[in-house]
Write a structure and sequence with these properties.
Strand content: 35-45%
Number of helices: 3
Strand order of the largest sheet: 1-2-4-5-6-3
Distance between the termini: 34 Å
Radius of gyration: 15 Å
CATH topology: Thiol Ester Dehydrase, Chain A
Shape: globular
Length: about 150
Amino acid sequence: MKYNIHDIMKFLSHRYPFLLIDRVESMSEDKTTAVVIKNVTANEPQFTGHFPGCPVMPGVLIIEAMAQACAILALDRLSEEERNDGSLFYFAAIDNARFKRVVEPGDQLRIACKYIRDRAGIGKFEAEATVDGQLACRAEMMCARRKPN
């Protein structure tokens, strides 16, 4: 299963400048794994200040792109009624995050995410982001599905 940006925008409520994934390249039939693409471009707003003359994608934005990839996986596991009930996925935990490589404009982040489990509306995931086959970031994440106040 593949999703383009229009499909992604049907799943996620994020919009520019905070929609940080561009394509779902593949998703397993059982919806437990997915590969998601984030094209890193020089015209993204964070590069004006991080860092001038040496643009580097902030680690928190790499983590956020990984979380959005996991959210697509989580949302695709829900029924259409559940997806449209107004709930959002909020971060509950980020564990064992490790950054191994700088990510710069022109790079393509390939995010492999894996659904681990769901208990009481809290999902657990593992994700890795690579650039040209080199590990850029790895983390375990938990998210809570809740209706906004």
